[in-house]
Amino acid sequence: MSLFDQFKPTRAGQIKIKAKQKTMQNGNDEWQNITQEHEFTYWDSGYLKYKTIKFQITFTKEKKIKYTKDGQILRTDQVLDSFQKPEIFNNLEQINNLKWSGKYGQNSLKVGRWTADWNNETIQEVGGQYSQCGQKQGLWKDLSKNYWSEAQIFDVGLYIDNQRSGIWKYIYKNSEIGGGSYNEQGEKNSKWLELIKVKSFMKVNIRVVKNLVCGMFYIKGTGRDNQNKYSIKVGKWIELNDKFWDLAQVLLIGDYKNGRKVGRWDTLHRIRNNKPFEIIGGGSYDKNLEGHTVSDSLKIGKWIELSEGFWRDSKITYNGEYQNGIKVGQWDIYYFDDDAEKIQLIGRGSFVEKINDQNLLGSLKTGIWIELSDGFKRKRNIFYKDDLMQQLLIFLQIKFHVFCQSGGGQYEKLKDNHMGDSIKVGKWIEEIEGFYEYGQVFYCVEYLIGKKVGIWYQMFGDNILDEENYLN
């Protein structure tokens, strides 16, 4: 009999299902109209940078799960199986492309063989069997949590009564790249070779996993977990930056105490695989654990932080000071110019402490700021200059390359808003995504209360490339 053949549920599994059925039958009317905000971060290979997309997940009283983005419905799933927790997709690629197919038995429980389709094509050998009680049984080939077209990674192993058990492997291109074992309670035990924990696991990171994670996390034993029900990090750790990839190889090195970062943490990076890692930034965390929860890791003193989109062609750092985890005083922005072999001060600004609407202490930007555009890189040096102290209008200018002005517009501060939020108003000249030295394409646009209105013109020099009409 094949490992994928139907498995009969164990006695323990039958008891669990009956208990679940009773619980769910009592709570079938508990579905409420609830909307959650989510973010999906992915790697855009065309622009060589990470992008984050916001979308919403709505749970309705009709037991539907709706996924929407910018007011557009991406997907609607009808929940039929009331005895199992519904599958929620947090990966925008899976929302658009993934569909599971199979049969439902009594009480709308999944039964028999289930398979997965991606963009209307069946993914070979993916899936497994459900028992008559709607539980996963036997050998399964699951999609990894962050599976998508550029990172086709699978989890392969055994289910017993809907619970992972024994050896599980991570498979990529028919090769094992990680894994470990589960105990009888479905908890990870012994040693595991984990994939990089990023919001969106990229194809470009696969080689890094095999070379770096094996060498630094596994063989050298860099970091260990206490074997409690809820494990916490302790001791010395070498971690990969969340957005680690080939051209942004960044490591974080420091100590954990009871799950909190403490003491000195250094940030290291390298440009090429054959080069050594060098310290480029870092700072200190408060060592005093009293009065803080386990999750608190408070930055203190002077810090050098990397920009959000730090990589080979955009090596930007922010240098400033923290007090009890809050940015204070002046912060300087530096650019590492590899061509000129020098470090340039390209921007700066100041922070002040502020109590927000939730009565929590935070910090706000104040005064004159010179900032970078989101996609700042070599051959595309765009700076923003803001005066954040004005009460009504916040003027903005865009500076391109050798600081020649090429665009800009105005912001208006929202009334009765204590967080300093503002919206775009009036006429603007904006850079198009992908703007660079030899492709200077702009939008000539107009905003009304922060919304696009009228005709938008896409310009290259003095030439109109395209136009788009927005209703008022």
Summarize the structure.
With 472 residues, the protein is mainly beta.
Count of helical regions: 3
Q: What summary fits the major beta sheet?
A: 10 strands, antiparallel
| Morphology call | globular
**Mean pLDDT over the residues:** 72
Got a strand count?
A: 31
How are the strands ordered across the major sheet? 13-14-15-16-17-18-19-20-21-22
Amount of helix: under 10%
Query: Which consecutive residue ranges, at least 5 long each, have pLDDT under 50?
Result: 1-29, 197-229, 379-406, 434-441
Q: In percent, how much strand structure appears in the residues?
A: over 45%
Rg, rounded, reads 26 Å
Structural class, judged by helices and strands?
Answer: mainly beta
Terminal Cα span: 66 Å
Q: Can you offer a commentary on this structure?
A:
This protein is mainly β. The protein has a domain of 106 residues. The strands form four sheets. It has a ten-stranded antiparallel β-sheet, with no helix packed on it. Strands 23, 24, 25, 26, 27, 28, 29, 30 and 31 form a nine-stranded antiparallel β-sheet that branches. The chain is globular and about 65 Å long.
